[in-house]
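New to this. Please check this record:
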Amino acid sequence: MSDNTTPMYRPADIAARCQVSTRTVMRAIRSGRLRASRLGSRGAYRVRPEDLEAWIVGTTVLPLPQPGCPPERAVPGRLIVTEEMGRHGHRAPPATP
């Protein structure tokens, strides 16, 4: 839980910081992609710093593999599923000697 000294950002503040339009920020708020609180009698939106950071991280696009670089290969191994993993009732038959 945050204390009362934590600053909250207005959509215009976020737009300036992220170099996007206020309209883009409002679309993110209204669609639920950016968490915000509606405060005051006019229902002004305010966003906590951690919610802004979560939005930025959540919209991060990872780079595509570069041409000429070999794709990552799966590592050979053995998958072991235990009962603790939630696979109850689906046991392999006992091994025969």
In short: The first strand starts at residue 37 and ends at 39. Helices lie at 11-18, 22-31, 49-58.
